[in-house]
Every structure is written in C-alpha cells, then in structure tokens.
Amino acid sequence: MSKLPGIPNRLFQWYCDPLLVEQILGDLEEQFDEDSAALGVRKARWRFTWNVIRFFRPGIIRKFEGSRKLNYFGMFKHNLKIGWRNILRKKSTSTINIVGLSTAAAVCLLTVIFYRYETSFDHHHELSEHTYRVVQTTQRPDAELYWGTTAYPLAAALRSDFPDFEFVTQTAGPMQRLFGYKNSNSGKVLFEEGHVLFADEYYPQVFDFDWIAGDPATALNEPNAVIITEKVAQKSFGEHFDPSTAIGEVLLLNNKDQLIVKGIIENNRPNINLKANMIVSYEFFKKHNPYPTGNWSGNYQGTTFVVVNNLAQSSEIGRKINDWKKKYLNQDDDEIISYGLQPLPEIHTETKYGATPGGYQIAKSTLDVSLMVAFFILVIAIINFVNLVTANATIRAKEVGVRKALGGGKSIIIGQFVTENALLVGLSFILAIGIAYFSLNYLNDFLQIINLELSFQPSDIAIALAFCVLVILLTTVYPSFILSSFNPTKALYNREAGESKGVGLRKGLTFFQFTIVQVFVIAAIVVGMQLQYFNTKSLGFDSDKVVSIPIPYPEGMDVFMNELKTLNGVGEVSIGSGPPMAVENFALGTRFRLPHQGKNDGLGAEMKIVDSTYLELFHIPLVAGRNIRINKDRFDEFVVSKSLVTSLGWTPEEAIGERLTINEGEATIVGVIDDFHNHSLQNEKTPVVLLNWRAFQWRAMIKVSAFDNLIGIEEKWAQQYPEQIFSYSFVDDSIAKEYVIEQMIYTGFKFFSALVILIAALGIFGLISFLTLQKRKEIGIRRVLGASIAEILVLFNKQFSFLILLAFVTAVPLVWYAMNQWLDSFTYRINLSLWMFVAGGVITFILGSSVAVMKSYRAATLNPAESLKDE
Amino acid sequence: MSRTNYLGEFEELILTMVLVVGDEAYGNTIVKAIKGHQHREVNLSSVHITLYRLEEKGYLESSMGGATKERGGRKKRYFKITNTGKALLQEMKDARTSLWKLTPQLQFKTV
User: Does the model's pTM come out above 0.80?
Assistant: First the structure.
C-alpha cells in the first residue's frame, strides 16, 4: 500500500474543518488505494491532489480560527465606541487633555521643524560633505582672534600649490551695489541690490544652484560675467522675461561698468549661508580692488572654500597649509596667523569662527536647548494626561469590576483603556498637525529677521506619527495597568477601591510639572530683566533721534553736508565711519602702540573716523584736552578713550601731546574721552581711537527733531546724488537690532512659560474637579457639621500649595545655575536677585491656586442638602 | 410543495442514492453507486458537501463507525435517510407523477 502524497495531505489537514478531517480523509485514502491498484500510484497521486483541490470549498474549509480573532475586531469596535462615549461624557477632562496635548505636540513639532531647518544649511550641495571653509586664527598678545574670512590671494595660491584640492574657490561679499538696466522700449530700471557676491568660476561648480539658463561650468569664465536670480531678472527685464533672451543682456554696475548676464538661477533657498542674488565674476572685483585682493596681511570679507577629495586627508592638509604659508606671508604675519579647515555643513551652527558675511548663526547648543524646552512642554502635557486618567480610575473602578466579573481578562481591560487613550492622543495629534501647519506662517513672520522660511514637509507627518505612538505608549501603559489591576469584588463592593491607586505618582508628576513651570517663569523674568538692562543701560553716548545715511562717494560730500545744515529742524550733522556703537558687525579694527614698539606688540582697538561735530552730536564728554579740528588726507590728531590711555600707563592729562602709532599711521593725542560702549553689550567695550582722516567717511549722521525732517533730507539727497537710491536708519533702531537674538529668546520664553502655565493650570483644574466630584458627600457632611467655606477651600488647596512650594524649592537652584550660565555669556549683565525667584514662584502660585480655588469654591458653596440628598 | 422543501437535482440524486445503497452509505460508496447506476462521474467533494447539507436540512442522519485497516484506519461517516427525507422523496415523486399525468404527448399512440 503506498503512502498518501505528503504536501496535498498536509494541505488538506490544514485547511479542512477538524470535525470533517477523519471521514473525508478516510474516503480520500480509500479512493487513493483503489486508484493506485487500478491506475498506478502516479495517477492515483494526481487524482488525490486534484480531489484535495476540489475539497477546498466553503463548507469544508475550517472556520476561521477566526471566530476568536474576529471577535477581537468586535471588541475593538466596542472599545472605540465606549471610548468615544467617555470622551463626550467627560467633556472638561477630555478638553483639557486634547487642548494640552495638541498645543504641546504642535509646539514640539514646530521646534523639530525649526531645528531641522537650522541644521540643514548648505547640506544640499552634492559636494557639501567634501567642502571646507578656510578659517584663520590670529594670535595677538592680548587675545586670540578667529576669522571665517581670509586674505584674498590665499585661494589662487592654494589652487596652484595644492593639487589635492578638487576645487578652490574665492568669494568676496556679499556686498551692496547699485545696478541699472537700459531698455529700448521701457526706459531705464534702477535698483539697489544688497546681496552681490563676487566669486570665481569654480564657485558654481562647488555650490549647487537650480539653473534656469546658463551653464554652471562656464558662466563666470569672463571677467564681466554676472549670474542673477529670477527675482533680479524680473526686476530688470520685467515680470515675464524670456530666459533665453535675457542671457547676454547688459546690466550697469554703479551706472558705469557693463556686466553681461551669463546665467539665471532660481531664487536662493533660504537655508544657505552665503546669500547672493547676483554673482559677479571675481576677476571684476580684483580689477577694481587691486590693493585688497593682492594683500596677504588684510582680511576683508573674503571667504575661501576648498573641496577635498579624500575626507581622511583633510586634517593632514590643514597641517600642510600651515607649513606652507610662510612662502607667502611676511614673517610677522606668519608668526601669528594659522589656518584651519571647517566643514561646510558646520558653518551655520559652530560659532567659533563666526558667520559668513551677511549671514547669521545659531549655536548648536541654542538649538539643543530649544529642542529640550519643547520636549519639556510635551512632558508637562503628558503628565496632565496621566494624572487625569489615573484620577478617573476611581470613578471607573465599578466599570472595571463589572467587566472583570463578566469574564474580562486583564489583557482585555488593558486593551480597552489603551484604545480609549489612544483615541484621545490620536485626536490631539491630528489637531496638533493642523495647528502646526497653520501657525508656520506666524512663526515665519515672527522670525523674519533671520529670514526664516519654514515649510511643512511630508516627513513631518511621519515625525508626528512617531511622536504620537511614543506618547500613546507613555500615556496609556501605566494608567491602563492601574485600572486593570482592580480586584473586582473590592471594586464592586467599595466605591473607593481605586482611590489610593496612583496617588503617589500623581503627586510626583504634579510636583515635577510645577518644577518645570517655575523654571520657565523665573527664566523668562531673568531674560526679560537682562533685556531691559540692555535697552536702558547708559552707553556713554546719546543716539536719540540720530539718523544715519550712507554716503555713496566722497565727491560733493561737503556740499551735501552744508545743504543738510540749512534744513529746518536738523541739528548737528557729522560725517564719519559710523555711530559710536558698531552695528551690523561693522567696525574698523586696528592696533595701537608707542612709536618705538614693534608691530606685533600692538594692542587691539577700534578706530573711528570722525569730524569736529561728532562728540557734540553724540554727547560724548571730553575728559582732557580738546576736540579734533579739521579732517585731512593725512590724519594728525587722535582723540582716544580713557581705557587706551590707562593701558599705556598714563593719566588722561599726561597723554595729551603724546605720539601714538596705529596700523594706519602715527599722530598726536589731542584729547581723551570717557569710555563708551563701542560694541553691543554682549561684548566688552574696547579702546577707541577717533581720528581726523578723510577716508572711510561712509556715513552722514544727522540729529533730527521730528520724523518729517527725513523728507527734507531725502530732497537734498536727490539733488546731490540723483543716480542713487535714498536709504536711512535710525541709530537707536540699529542698536536695538543688535539684541534681536536676545529679544527672540525673551519672546520665546514668554510664550513658552505662558504655555506651560496654561497646561499646568489645566491639569490642576482637571484634578480639582475630579477631587470635588469624589468628595462631594464629604464636603456636604463637613458643611452640615459647621465647617466654613474657607476651611473647605484649605482642605482642597493645601496639598497643591505644598507641591508648588516644594517645586519652587527644587526649581530655584536649577534655574539659578542655568541662568548664571546664560548671563555669563554677556560682559554686561544683571545679577540674579532674590525677587526674580520670588516673583516667579508667586506668579505660579497665584495662577495655580486661583484655578484651584475657583474650581473648589463651587463645590464648597454647594448646598449640603443638594450634595447629600441622592441615594 | 413549499419553497423550503425544495431539493436541487443533485441533492435529490444523493438523497435517493443513500436510500439505494442502504446500510453501507458513505462518501465513496455513493460515488460508486452513482457511477454504477447512472454512468455519471461525480467528484467526492461535491458528494460530501451535499451530504452535509442534506443532513443539516434534516433529511439525513449520520453516525461514525466501521474503522477498518483500509483507509489508514480512519472511521467512516455512515448516512441514513430520515423519515422526513423519505417523506420528501415520496412527495417529490408524487408531485412528478401527477405532473406526468397532465402531459398529453406522452401517451404512446403506437402501442
């Protein structure tokens, strides 16, 4: 007798209803035996297989194991329904959970988007992993200076001496330039462009742009070539220009030099460091600036990038460059200057060497802190959730008891609560995605100053989903286990069964929550005070109502100035290199020494070109000597600051008449002034040299009495510089802009602390309303026995008050440490004082307890007859 | 004849065959009987399905039994017609006969 074929046999036994296997398989085997006797084994096997296939039909196939799994689905539907009813029934709890969780998740999501944006700068270039910025360190006797820019001739020298580099590219700027375009039919277009980058022909090969027209490999080959963005093309050639004919058009730089359009690129992505709306050939820059571009000792806004083929070699190459530099640098410079390579993707977040010209940086640590802050907000919301769910456990103890009595296993009850909570969390996250999506625009507006263009990407939904799952896990696991662990007999017998469950945890979480809240509130107060200090601290000069306007070229400057003085309402007019405080990173650095000292003995100072009205205009008092008299082509008079005099060992009076040398030349000290803040308050003030030079006279500073005076000034400007575009800024505004990051941090903290207070208050509200419900009868009995309303309020609030107080005690050292660290980054800082902490604590306490009192007052004033009447 | 008592052609065949085969009625013997009496090849699976269906409808009853050395020592499920089944067959037969009587063309003129 031959055996049944294995596979069909097993297949049959797998799919067949176990109740039928015996009889059918018996019949099949009987037939198989007969067949194999009559037709041969092979044929019998085929027939058997065929029969097995034929038996695969409804009525024979086993019921889906199914019945149990299918019931799962039923349970799931049931759980969803019960969950939904619970959400609807407990409106306040559900609202608190959803509002808290969705705002927190939205904030978290936005922060992640922000973080990703800020860490994505210049990551998109194909060569970005291989590209490095050449950075410079200068060793001075008093300090080590770090530069992201280098001397202009460096790139060409590296290119010829180091074959290891795939590309070496040099840029200058971005700078501000005036452009014109003459068109036969539409006349003339004149515009000022603030982001003109000069770059050599390798630049478009290292940095990727989206090209509309032109060839990246050859676009900048000619010395008068220019690449423009779509925006500039639209400005010059009209809204609907034709890219193919735009190539080859001529733009006039400063109304005289012809530049030929060789390429058109899409508008800049927001997340690149070197913003450039026009890229002009570096050769052009070199031709017009022969001195700086040939000077190895200077450092003027030029950035050098190199592309290294083999990443492993980058550190070795850095060493080689430092051996090689003596070939070009003079001996003095060679001793103090060293070079390094900084990876391109790190430029935006690694602050040591500074931002690229015209760019900004955000330190990695700041980004990390913001991520942490957002995370804490989410944690606070999660705590609310857990607290409210476990608190509600008591009320639901009976339900759990009934379910268990009816045979619901622990896992089924856990399943129920997980589904319920997941429903809430899921709803919150859908809301959060919506909130985040619609608030992106507001956030972009708020952070406009740093040109933020955040956008929502599909991957963000994935991030939100991952968050969501994580939050579901965090929020549901513990409460579900608490709820499912009730003993049914106890739960059904005694309605207080669940009361003690999770109380310790709830207290712990509330404590933790309020620690975070108080850290935030106190931090916001400290940041606000520091900012106020910035805004109100005496700077040593007075810049109220002073307008600063750029002088395009020296010709006609004196005429312009005299014209301005004739205007009504205009006070002092001074022309010089800039206002007393260096704004927009513009400062003329120099070094000073006694005439007999060597060049490298010089100490750092800032030089300011002024005229005889400068001190009067800015109310800077002289301590000794006199003001400078008249500006000359060779300067011969210095007015110096007190700290400079002190560093040379003189008193102000002794200094008058002494000779002093700065990098630019030698002159006599004629006056000494008090120190003033020549840098924004994050930084130390430095010695200052004011001199009577007829160079760098780039700005006119004008005292006005009213905003209307600007109209007269603009008219004079138009007469004097008809080809130029008028622009102005108030010195006060420019100074305020120096604190824009601090202002941003302050606004952020205000917002975040308001948010955490809100969420935590919601949490208290939820907990108290739960407590009042639970203690309804107790309160009634107490009232009947003569307790006053105040006593009952105390009963409710003493626990929370104690927790807030405990949290305060914990928060103080934390925030004290953190804020001291932050304040240490400023040279001029406030000192932490007790009142800031107390104020933070009191604000939190008042907000927290007023919510608690408000909620419990209703319960306390309820007529005992009402609360005791049922049952 | 009401709609609930309706039997398909194949069901009627199987039900009849169970009656014909008698005590030895189970899957294989019915297949063989159909082959023997009707010269018709039917698949075992259809027979089984139909048997179960008839049993569900109450026209057949079954019992396990007769473990033999053949067929891997597995038991057979024997089917036996119930009284309802018999009555139904009878009813169907009568119904058909009465219909037959109404058909004129079947009077054989040559006889």
Answer: no
